[in-house]
Specification:
Number of strands: 0
Low-confidence stretches: 1-16
Helix content: over 70%
Mean pLDDT: 92
CATH class of one domain: Mainly Alpha
Shape: elongated
Amino acid sequence: MNRFIPILFLSLVSCANKSQSNKSFALALKSDTLIIQNRLNEAEQVIQEAIRLDSSNYIAYNNLAIVRIKTNSSSEKVVDAFTKSLAINPYYATALYSLTNFYHDKLDYSNAIIYSTKYLNLFKKGSQSDTDICRLYTIRAESRNMKGDFNQALLDSDSALNYCPSSYWAYKERGSAYRQLHLYNDAIKNYSRALEINPTYAQAYNGLALCYDDGKIDFNNAIVNYTKAIELDAKSGTYIYNRGACLYDNGFKEKARPDFIKADSLGKVEAKSYLKKYL
């Protein structure tokens, strides 16, 4: 009869573990609601209990990462929680999506490319929210533009627009890739399309101005579009610096000076090299 005791014991343990796992899952779902309600301290307590009950609860680790983002925890703690979630379930789309966005927000373009690729490899068209897939293609396009991989950025922008044909962000990224490849007419078309969709998109005005400026196409249009970008985002040292450089390089040195002073005050370090020329 003793030989049946281990079997019975294992069965009881299995039932107990299943019960704990179910409780842990329920707590993870409860933490979703608490996070939405911005009750972050309560959410973290619930999540920690969920993890105590079942250390393989990848949903709980993902939610812990979200709480840490919202409470301005260190990047190391945020990534640690996401990493634990994905170590348990490498195909957990929610964690891949959130981690991609986190790295993008931190301007960590290399990791944004890595995790957006893992996410996008999970899905075929129609199997996930078009908006989510569009966003990650666009993040990858922007990240590749920032890393200098302009041809791949074009492909990602095209993919994003297949999912969201009215994405002004994707048009802007495609415009940026064309501009960096010196295909200025194609770039102008894409920046212009972005502005048709969103007429208050400062980045697209700046990109359009750069086309007219860098391509030596139209000085007046460059200044007009830099100015529109500045009017929409007066705290951008980059836009103000770009206008100043355009004015200076086209012989309007005194008109450029206030732009360099302002850009410098906003932390645009490149403005200092121009300001030294006035000494």
